[in-house]
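Take just one protein record:
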Amino acid sequence: MKNSVKLLGASVLSMAVALPAFAGEITVYTAYEEDEIASYVAAAEKAIPDLKINVLRLSTGTLAARLIAEAGNPQADMLWGQAITATMDPQILDQLEPYEAEGADALDERYRDPENRWFAPTGYMGTFCVNTARLEQKGLPMPASWKDLEDPAFKGEIIMANPTSSGTGYLHVIALLHELGEEEGWAQLERVDANIAQYTSSGSKPCKSVRSGEYTVGISLAITAAQSVEQGYPVKAVFPEEGSGYELEAAGLMKASDNKEDVKRFMDWLLTDEAIALYEDYKILIAAPGTTPAQSAIDAGVPEDVQSILADIDFPKSAEQQDEVKTTWKEKFGR
């Protein structure tokens, strides 16, 4: 007998695996990428063979809007892999029911809600993606901080994700504002803006433009830098001394679910050794204690202790500030 994992709506993905008759079925909303979903769900259904997991994959913003729109008649049993900044919206957070998944008590407090409404098995983080060949060709110093990017020698050599349209851009900006304070944080961004050649709508594009030799520094995603090194590009990931911005990918049980026990089985699986091993294929930031980045990430410049370089971000405050920060950004840097 064959089972298919369904990506409903905007994105459809299917696979067939031999399973016994289903005892349970759940619908999960997620913002994870499709290749991740396929890997995680196939492994989870193999580990829980009487559970069928139907998945709707949407972008972070679209997913948040759908959850809010469906608040009066929720269709999902579970939220999974959604940016915590979006999840902190009370219109979404209030739809989640407390449940302490197996293994969640071992997570650092930054990776779980004190009321157990969510926990984050994974996340993603920002970095300066530096083309070492172009850096040497231009005679530029290796930057170690946002302050280093003020150097007039970098004028026209930096490309950055725009925080008004890119979650990656936003995590960089909010990290700087929370670490330096708003006054100095904005002042620092203004000083670096003088050297920015372009702001992009994509979080990965700055690193991809840098690795192709168009620019020297891309304020971008760490995973893209690691993938670029693995593919042979002359790239190094530099994590700013002020602290690296990051986002968490939350999982939570929907209050309105009619399949709560089945959801709990899947949530318990998310922190198993098997799941954690799979995360290492796609993630640099993994919440489980004792995990280290893949060798390709370390080769790119990611430290073994990723936690040590993370900025001190107040996520509830970050969620509240989004509209204000984006408005201020447009006023200061809109081009």
Observations:
- The chain has two domains: 2-123+247-295, 124-245+297-333.
- Residues 157 and 215 are 5 Å apart (CA to CA).
- Confidence is low (pLDDT under 50) at residues 1-20.
